[in-house]
Write a structure and sequence with these properties.
Elements: H1 4-10, H2 16-22, E1 31-32, E2 38-39, H3 47-52, E3 54-60, H4 70-83, E4 88-92, H5 97-100, E5 109-110, E6 113-116, H6 118-122, H7 128-149, E7 157-160, E8 164-166, E9 176-178, E10 189-191, E11 193-195, H8 200-207, H9 211-219, E12 222-226, E13 231-233, H10 234-237, H11 240-246, E14 254-258, E15 263-266, H12 281-290, E16 293-297, H13 302-317, E17 323-328, H14 330-336, H15 349-368, E18 373-378, H16 385-398, E19 401-405, H17 407-410, H18 416-428, H19 444-456, E20 458-463, H20 465-476, E21 484-487, E22 506-516, E23 521-526, E24 545-547, E25 550-552
Parallel strand pairs: 3-16, 3-17, 4-15, 4-16, 8-11, 17-18, 18-19, 20-22, 21-23
Antiparallel strand pairs: 1-2, 2-14, 5-6, 6-14, 7-12, 9-10, 12-13, 14-15, 22-23, 24-25
């Protein structure tokens, strides 16, 4: 089969104005970025229409390093919906340059289930990530300047919390010292960089309901504490308006298309292991205002992306899925069944059966939210019919629907059965009220323990002294009603990336707490997780090139 980039290049793209008109947006209402990409005004959100749309969440079993294929399923399902005559839009996150040039590669789907133009989406796109990076680092520069300019007046901060960000995997920037050299270079501080998807500005953009809410949240960002222990915010700097100006274009959702010409809205890009892992509320509600069915994705496994989608995004936006699709692969099941990574493409029915423990934990977790769960099986050429039959039989025993997905190889036609079964399942199972893991009115420490014990399977949660102090500080600031966002490895339910399957009764350590007063959530740092990834020994950048004027190696 052709490579992703070959398929993308050979696809006959529709003008973005045609794609927009099909979903009810006039060409004069678009801000076009060339012929095939455009920004949509935020004014298309209609709360009444959005309430009638069926939202479908796509999540997955615990990830492998190669991924499980959620984005491919999401796009394929939307293409399949269109094939069976349903008005459907897929709403996704934007790729980060870190993974594109690092370990994972692109994030625009695969095969005949991609969003296009994939090269632009995977690279600079419409500049949203650059705008977020610029806004974040402008705050850093303005804060450093404020401290420098007001030092003679005796002003200083007892603690500076705000770091910098960059959309590149760069381990050397995790911890740095700024202001070295003569005094004219500014005050000396220990600082560091997070990757842009972990920036609080990214979370703010994705959780804001409109431009006014965006500004309010930006002004509320906690930058540090004064010498008398008072919070110092962006509002105290007096630059909330300037930072908002930098994000005026970035807050508008991006309209692109699938390989088959269907509408796709791609906007925002927080990682699910170190942030909340969902596209923007504005993008999701825009799609729900324009279509009868909306397919969206939450990053990594359901213990991360789906939990945060339901406990954070749905709580904030007042939305909920009509159905959750749980993506599984034989490779993933075998890995969680203890099969060595070098052998997961070889037949191993026993390994598949052992891997059901991971699948079952995710199913039960999602059902605990009140969700109807549908297992979508991503088929690969190395899969055997015997092993696929095992998965199908097991899902029947669990009482959940099961369907193969062939969108990667066949596009919408390969997802028509999936689309029909999804529609049928939604119609048979009316939405139940969403049940969160924890209520708003619960101590922050108890919220973290609720997620760790109920979703991950931990026996106890151990809080480092620094984490306890910051939780106490958050409570002192009146932030106890915020939801919690746990940053942990994507490769296991636990904090140990090598603890595959469905581990239980393990200790779960919270090493630090990040207080996000702008995005209005408390980020708990678990285990050895870091917010600035490094590059692998052989990064994807080594195979990306331009040959005869065309990009190669991008996937």
């Amino acid at each position: 089969m052709k490579t992703d980039i070959e398929i993308a290049r050979e696809a006959k793209l529709r003008r973005i104005t045609e794609v927009a008109e099909e979903i009810g947006i006039g060409s004069d209402e678009l801000e076009q970025y060339g012929h095939y990409m455009a920004k949509i005004p935020t004014s298309f959100i209609d709360e009444d229409k959005a309430k009638n749309a069926k939202l479908i969440l796509v999540t997955a079993i615990t990830a492998t390093k190669a991924g499980i294929g959620k984005t491919t399923v999401s796009i394929g399902l939307a293409e399949g919906m269109r094939k069976i005559g349903k008005k459907c839009i897929v709403a996704l996150r934007e790729p980060s340059l870190g993974p594109v040039f690092g370990m994972k590669g692109g994030a625009a789907g695969g095969g005949y289930a991609q969003v296009l133009p994939m090269e632009k989406i995977n690279l600079h796109f419409t500049g949203d990530f650059h705008a977020i990076t610029s806004a974040h680092n402008t705050i850093s520069a303005l804060l450093d300047n404020y401290l420098y300019q007001h030092a003679k007046e005796g002003f200083q901060l007892k603690e500076v919390l705000w770091k910098r960000c960059l959309d590149v995997n760069d381990r050397n920037l995790r911890q740095i010292v700024t202001g070295l050299g003569p005094s004219t270079n500014g005050k000396k501080f220990i600082s560091g960089f997070d990757i842009t998807p972990a920036s609080e500005i990214m979370a703010i953009l994705c959780l804001s309901k409109d431009i006014d809410d965006l500004r309010r949240r930006i002004e509320n960002i906690l930058l540090g504490y004064t010498m008398d222990d008072k919070p110092f915010t962006v509002k105290d700097l007096g630059v909330g308006g300037a930072i908002t100006v930098l994000l005026l274009d970035a807050i508008k959702p991006n309209l692109v298309q699938t390989v088959e010409g269907g509408a796709a809205i791609v906007h925002g890009g927080p990682f699910a292991n170190i942030a909340h892992g969902c596209n923007s509320i504005i993008a999701t509600k825009t799609a729900m205002s324009l279509a009868d069915y909306v397919v969206t994705e939450a990053g990594f496994g359901a213990d991360l992306g789906a939990e945060k989608f339901l406990d954070i995004k749905c709580r904030k936006a007042g939305i909920q899925p009509s159905l959750t699709v749980l993506v599984a692969t034989l490779n993933g099941l075998k890995m969680h069944g203890g099969v060595p990574e070098s052998d997961i493409k070889l037949p191993n029915p026993e390994g598949v059966v052992r891997g059901f423990a991971n699948l079952d934990r995710h199913i039960r977790n999602l059902q605990s939210f009140g969700q109807t769960v549908f297992v979508c099986f991503n088929k690969f050429s190395s899969d055997t019919e015997e092993e696929i039959a095992l998965v199908k039989e097991h899902c029947a025993k669990m009482g959940v629907e099961f369907c193969l997905n062939n969108a990667w190889a066949q596009g919408g036609e390969g997802a028509m059965e999936l689309a029909n079964k999804v529609v049928e399942t939604i119609e048979k199972n009316p939405s139940k009220p969403l049940e969160f893991v924890y209520p708003d009115k619960m101590a922050l420490k108890d919220k973290i323990e609720a997620v760790a014990k109920k979703i991950y399977g931990a026996k106890e949660v151990i809080f480092a002294r620094k984490a306890v102090e910051k939780l106490e500080e958050a409570t002192r600031l009146g932030l106890q009603d915020f939801p919690v966002c746990i940053a942990k490895t994507q490769y296991s339910f636990s904090q140990d990336p090598k603890a595959y399957g469905a581990p239980v009764d393990f200790p779960f350590e919270i090493k630090d707490i990040v207080i996000n007063t702008g995005s209005e959530m408390i980020v708990a740092i678990a285990g050895s997780i870091i917010r600035m990834p490094g590059l692998p020994k052989v990064p994807k950048a080594q195979v990306i090139d331009i040959v005869d004027g065309e990009i190669v190696g991008l996937s």
